[in-house]
Design a protein that fits this description.
hydrolase (chains A, B, C, D); globular; homotetramer; formamidase activity (chains A, B, C, D); FormamaseFmdA (chains A, B, C, D); 13-stranded mixed β-sheet; about 30% strand; six-stranded mixed β-sheet; EC 3.5.1.49 (chains A, B, C, D)
């Protein structure tokens, strides 16, 4: 078994683990070092560091302090890595921790970050998903079972000071355009809940003051939430600092394209088994700005889909210009409406779109003024036939099962 | 052989063919009638009605009058279809016309509609693609060959007067928000180049004055440019008028998600072999607003991809809020930059993204402020290895081949 | 459109068409010549040359003279091809003739060739399959519809005299081991029904006397009946004579692995669009004795299967030693028995296994004394659920439909 | 984590573990009991019980006593299971033991069981395969890496006395037809090395005297070595005794169709996570004699193959009648010859065919006198291009690496 270089104890606060951090900053000390060619394992907390529990209340989803996330394992220093290189990371395997074979999905309250459909689901809700080997089911969402497309939602290398400065300037300026918005347009550095890894004293304070929050994906990758970055895939990351500083966390047992429920996919604690190599000078050789990757040869093979279309006219009839975000929202709303005809609650339908291996395609982006997006719902994950027939939908979904909801206080 | 209910003669102007129309309007006379259960064939012009030629000049792409498009075959009346039904359309097969085994892809001049990357490719360019049975190659884009994912870019049923009024109001109001924009935000009715099918006199004038332009996808489907609506798929269309009035056109031999080059996919004249059925009252039974569909069991099976990420910070460094359109543009620009390292011109790379069976996924839309989109480039369509290696890219692409470019006059 | 180098008129006897032949012999005159790099089209008869008709009687299957088959289009001479080369053939497309959009499947009478399950189906039966674009259905086999995996059952190059002599000696000697067997162990040359292409007089007589029958696959390929040699595939054929002499015929709209019904797959008249290239000296360079090929990127993608096992103990309880033929027969009989539980007749079930894109895998061949073979039945071709459930099989199959049967006279 | 009902200690002899057995007999005591709906885990030895070691000598492959195999975990009693039921087993996951992340492949000496190509590889050889998460590589077979298609080679329920008697009679009679054959035609009961689980005294002696050897697949399933019975699949087993008595072992990290190397696939110790259900009376309801199964939605997705054909004329030129075993052997020999052109030794090529996710299809079984079989070699498992080109094969395979060989003493 390759060595586990970072271990996590789910009973311990992530703040007590010096090999965990929750900000991006070039000065976060390397938690461990490896050489090109090495295979190793990193354990990870779930993105909230254990705040969300396996129970039937959504209070934790309502109350979670989002300034604490994401708890990442790393940074891993790679000997010989220099700015301008590409760090090649093979995700040889990814799994849940044996003592934590479950995950959660939830919708944040609109007041606490909301989500893609927050206007339609303004209050905190949660579903718990149990893992059965390669598969998952939920006691809160009946009649659906699917194989996990296991992946890290968040992975990337440390920024250098120049890139960090650019991020902070870009996002702080952006927040300033609508400073009172709820939820905010972006999240600025926030020292109070910063976890700077093993940094102490002044260095820790500096990281707290300057460290970029981990929420958005950025040039280095980071919180991309790309479901296809799954175990078995191979990723080429830009390197900005000596040693690269690779960190990973926010593992998902499964997710639909878009991670539309925001909290999030099926979120879990777990481990990542990986191998690293270098392409020296690879950023210039291949013209790489953002990470690129090759998908895994082993992913769930659902190929019978029901596909929903959406255009960039919003649910209130307003015209938007080639706006794929709006178009995808319409496709999602259309799919939710459809699923309710078989007996699902809207919340359950939304949870399915957030967790199952749903594809979201950018189908048309030039036919002014309407973008067209499609949502691909795999039919084989349901234990009944969801396809349209002349006789109409059957009421197959078990009734009396609800997703926990916790209204704002 | 099922009957060919609509024939087109590529040497004849589409305006002379009464079973062709280029506007959406409830009063366009049915070109032909069928019964549920019928199989039949419709021939179609290419979307420009033959304006773009198989030659080595992009003058036609530069000069085409976009108020004339799209030339559609239909409407086909379906006996018994009533508002509120779902019209089930099986695309049993789709192909090019035997006397026209080629297609075109182009970029419009920025002054004439532009495209997804019009800031980067502001002038008219064209590539011609020859069909070799199931495959296509281009004399203007070397070292690439792929199987066609043949589909109609545009298909849908006639709107009723209420829906037509809503479309026109919505879009005309939208244009009014930036009336002088080039290209415009949307296209209003335009009588001069209207083709109302077999309508004559006052009826033709009415259709010309009120008929919705065919460019955008709308609630009825229409110009969705969804590559996966390919031959073998089964579509469920909302019905708004008695007889449904199904029209189809804008056939594509292949297209990447987004149809980013706008002019367009690999555009061709051809034929569609289809079968229709009805689900009575299906719109309410299944809560359907936009069309839904099941994909084909026969599509090109490329499964080895190189995937490019993009986030919603634009190419000038500007921050956008969860804007998938911007994110996908960055992924496309990243892929173009990458392909140039192997010897392609930027225009050739752009043409590949517009024509090959490229996937565009909405990967993350909740991680404020950045959306994340991915572009999936199939590696097996190239006759050399495009994957990153430690030794760097080889110069495999044949040099001295260029895509025709026609500067604005 | 590439040139159609060989045309067939389905109303004309294949014996009257000089570009058709039904024996393998080095002296059959080339019907046409092409150059490496050429694309061209060959039309073909169905394998029986039109003997089997689209009707509801199996008399023709019972009475067909199998000494006449297979009617092949060719040979096509390829300029520059020499013995020892590999002839690279791309099957750019394959289709049915527009005036013949149907095919047949049948079981021969045991007295006239029989088939894989001739002990269980000793009498002639037939089913007719209609083509609906990419799909097929049969009026004799209800509740099943599938996409065609279109391919030529028979394709290969002319043998040289030495190879021909080896074939004849090998097979004639083999027949001599059980000379009175019905059906015979093999088919020797048979002059009476020989069609030597354009050869006349003495040459025709020589070909009739020596020409190898086309029934078995041999070193050159020939009647391999490999369903995966489908349109879009690329085949590397050994070349034995100057000019190669490529012939093709026996087109199938679809077939299950094994072509177990023998008469045969879904047999059809049609056309093949192909392109040829050469690898000079390729047989030695790559150590090639039998053809090799790359499968098509476009084939029906059914991925939900019900898989039946069989072992090499025959249906009468007799033990055979690692005999995959016996094991596959058991898997087929198991599948037939299973399908009857849903209401199919045994003959209909057998026809489905012979025509649908069924896979036959050699699963274990070393575990003495039993080989294990598996038959993979795609579940998505049925319009009802064929998977086992606790409630038992539903009687979904439409009753009162039978496959024509013609007893021996 | 579901409970691990059977544990194995790889440092302990399997004969000392009472929950292991190596014979089929109705009287083997249940090792543990479960209820329908239960999930549980069984650990397993490798099939030889740890005899083959992770080293660079093939002495162990040469010397292994095959009368000891296979060491199975079980039998598991399922409450309520009765003869005539179908036992539904979901393989929720299968993996290697954490302390044993490697497997072996070997060829037996012809004197000790041989294998599919024993005439060509008459001496014992071995390769060791290391597991890297989802992937495997071998220090003895360079330039190849693939994802594991993990599965149990052997799984099934206990026979009842009548079935056991039939097996023994059938096989003993068969041995008697060539009693002096080396290797023998089959393996009779053999008391000396019998492991009867927890049975003692007279019962143990009875099991030793009567217990069927585990080598061949039989009506109940057993040693089917079906690579597609992989983790994620769902199997329906006939039940013959009260409680069913499910046993499993012989885990494979990967295997090619046929398990042609016999010793075997990539053999490993590991664990199986499974769930059981019952279909009461299912054998009659569905007409099931041998097990049936549904394949997994998660398996390696290699779809670019090079396919080799073989016909039933053996390598010495002898004609066989529709013999798929001979045909598949020719296809294998053709593939081995081909791979040597790139620098592999014949033994390495043979090992690749035995271990990689190679498909073996029964392509034609009716075209007298020749069967046709195909071997599908995935091209994406090699780190160089193995496809034929006009320039001939490159010498890409690292030289100086050999598979250990141990001549017979």
């Amino acid at each position: 078994m390759p060595e586990t270089l970072i271990k996590v104890d789910l009973k311990q606060s992530p703040y007590e683990n010096e090999k965990i951090h929750n900000r991006w900053h070039p000065d976060i000390p390397m938690a461990t070092w490896v050489k090109p060619g090495d295979e190793f394992i990193l354990e990870t907390y779930d993105w909230t560091g254990g705040y969300i529990q396996n129970n039937d209340s959504a209070d934790d989803v309502r109350d979670v302090d989002l300034s604490t996330v994401h708890f990442l394992s790393g940074p891993v220093g790679v000997k010989g890595a220099e700015p301008g290189d590409l760090l090649v990371v093979e995700l040889l395997d990814v799994g849940a921790k044996d003592d934590s074979l479950w995950g959660f999905n939830g919708f944040f309250s609109k007041k606490n970050g909301g989500g893609f459909l927050t206007e339609h689901f303004p209050q905190a809700q949660k579903s718990i998903w149990d893992f059965h080997g390669l598969f998952t089911t939920s006691r809160h969402v009946p009649n659906v079972k699917f194989a996990g497309l296991i992946h890290p939602g968040l992975i990337g290398c440390l920024p250098d000071p120049k890139m960090l400065a650019m991020w902070n300037e870009r996002e702080v300026d952006f927040i300033a355009t609508q400073p009172d918005r709820v939820p905010p347009l972006a999240n600025p550095p926030f020292a109070k809940t910063s976890h700077p890894g093993s940094a102490k004293g002044e260095l820790a304070a500096k990281i707290g003051a300057e460290g970029a929050r981990t929420v958005p994906p950025r040039e280095h990758g980071g919180n991309c939430d790309i479901k296809d970055l799954s175990r078995g895939s191979k990723i080429y990351f830009p390197v900005y600092v000596d040693g690269a500083g690779l960190s990973v966390g926010d593992l998902h047992f499964s997710q639909g394209d878009g991670e539309i429920t925001f909290c999030g996919a099926i979120e879990m604690a777990g481990w990542v088994h990986m191998k690293v190599e270098l392409i020296k000078g690879g950023m210039a050789k291949y013209g790489v700005k953002n990470p690129i990757f090759k998908p895994s040869p082993i992913t769930p093979q659902y190929n019978d889909y029901l596909i929903f279309e959406g255009i960039s006219v919003d649910e209130y009839g307003k015209q938007h210009y080639l706006d794929v975000h709006v178009a995808y929202r319409q496709a999602c709303l259309n799919a939710i409406e459809y699923l309710t005809k078989f007996g699902y609650s809207k919340a359950q339908a939304y949870a399915i779109l957030g967790t199952a291996p749903v594809q979201g395609h950018i189908s048309g982006v030039v036919d002014i003024p309407n973008a067209c997006a499609t949502l691909w719902l795999p039919t084989q994950i349901f234990d009944f036939d969801i396809r349209p027939t002349a006789s109409g939908p059957i009421q197959a979904v078990k009734q009396g099962i609800e997703m926990p909801l916790s209204p704002d206080l």
